[in-house]
Amino acid sequence: MTRTLTIRRPDDWHLHLRDGAMMQGVLPETARHFGRAIVMPNLVPPVVNAADVTAYRDRILAALPQGADFTPLMTLYLTEQTDPADIAAAHESGLVTAVKLYPAGATTNSASGVRAFDKVRGVLEVMAEIGMPLCVHGEVTDTEVDIFDREAVFIDRVLDPLRRATPGLRVVMEHITTADGVAYVADHHKDLGATITTHHLIINRNHILVGGIRPHYYCLPVAKREKHRIALVEAATSGDRRFFLGTDSAPHADAAKESACGCAGIFSATNTLSCLAEVFEAADKLDSLERFASLNGAAFYGLEPNADTITLTRGDPVHYPEKIDTGAGPVTVFDPGFPLHWHVS
Length: 345
Ligand code: NCD
Ligand code: ZN
What we know:
CATH topology: TIM Barrel
Bound molecules: N-carbamoyl-L-aspartate, zinc ion
CATH superfamily: Metal-dependent hydrolases
Largest sheet: 8 strands, parallel
Strand order of the largest sheet: 2-3-4-5-6-7-8-9
Distance between the termini: 19 Å
CATH architecture: Alpha-Beta Barrel
CATH class: Alpha Beta
Oligomer: single chain
Number of domains: 1
Radius of gyration: 19 Å
Number of helices: 11
Number of strands: 13
């Protein structure tokens, strides 16, 4: 049995760092193990232009622990007012790596997102021309669509038409949660990738609802049936270069989760790599972990993998904190529900 595994330092291709005291608290958790992360722009107010991005990036860099070697890769929040020329300039200068599309109302802080997709056509065309990736939150928001169907319906109604209308647009379907998402990505070889979270490889919808309602397993897109989780594990462990890690680690203070209307988001930055090693080991695919966590995402974004490495060592269970303390309140760490044997160094 493999006891140690050395892989290129991983990157997180979908991460929420928040701002202020919360960011101060959660940033070290990611910077400890990851080299880079695609930083989501859904602050309040959102990060919508180059000035916002510059200021946010500076706040992240200032909050990094001393000696941390971590690079935030910044995103812009697409609104119906976004100016194509601004986006192109921000990409050209290297300031912005990708643009984030939230259907308005789909998730936490998405109210400024897109309602009418024809209003962003000009931006998408410019992005296709310059090769700038679009990160997509793939859920419809129509009230008549069941929450468990919103990803599959989004593929048919929005994503596929949008990709056909904008040939060459590079799209990341983020945090896919269904066999439908896996199949769509697997069928479309060019210009399409997908991130998969740690928690969607581990939980299904029973974890949220059986034996009591468990707010710390509630996130969006919501976890689906077991057959979907199995499809996600197959995709993640396949080595297929179109699938890569995006933890979607999304901290909310416990008080905001443990409430009559709890926020969506699972915080997994602290123990993600140990969780993933267990998942890949159980699938007998530890040799694919590096591709999923460290190589495929960089290749999609046209970046070199990180030069340095991390080592995972199997041993007695690792004890991660149940919660981390932040200046914005305690944040519960994702509980995979099984012991974690892989130590990260
Ligand atoms: C994210 C958040 O809290 O910002 N929540 C979540 O459940 N994943 C937003 C998102 O990525 O949908
Ligand atoms: Zn997210």
